Amino acid sequence: MQGVVLARQGRSRKDHVSKQVEQLDRVIIRFAGDSGDGMQLTGDRSTAETATSGNDLATLPNFPAEIRAPQGTMAGVSSFQVHFADHDILTPGDTQAPIGIFRQVERPTYDDLTRAQVDTAVATTGPGDLAALIAGRDTWAVGEPRG
Fold first, then answer.
1. Are the beta carbons of 59 and 82 closer than 8 angstroms?
2. What's the distance, CA 3 to chain centroid?
3. Alpha-carbon distance 50 to 84, whole Å?
4. Hey, where are the domains in the chain?
5. Considering the entire predicted model, what is its pTM?
């Protein structure tokens, strides 16, 4: 795969610190964050740069139905995955190695928010009755397809 040259501002060539370079057969990168954080744009720009370098690639954009959720709610996770190499790539890849974060924000997890929402619903309307829901009027019969 073609190499990438990184330049550091304010350093001359003689001050350059050498780093170990690892040759990889393929690279899979997933950019992920809250919707609206720019992950789709970041993935799109990375894809363009990868293609310009002459690599083969496959992408997997993933975003929720609502990019901007109503105020006070979570929008969901938006991600963009890029799989590239100097040989044919057939899938967007299935493994990634976490390497860092763009921004870290302390707040409740999706699981915590979902549990709190269920707890609030149970406190407001009671625990519910699954058997009554199944036997209720909002049911339908599934039969053979009409041909």
1. yes
2. 26
3. 7
4. 13-105
5. 0.50
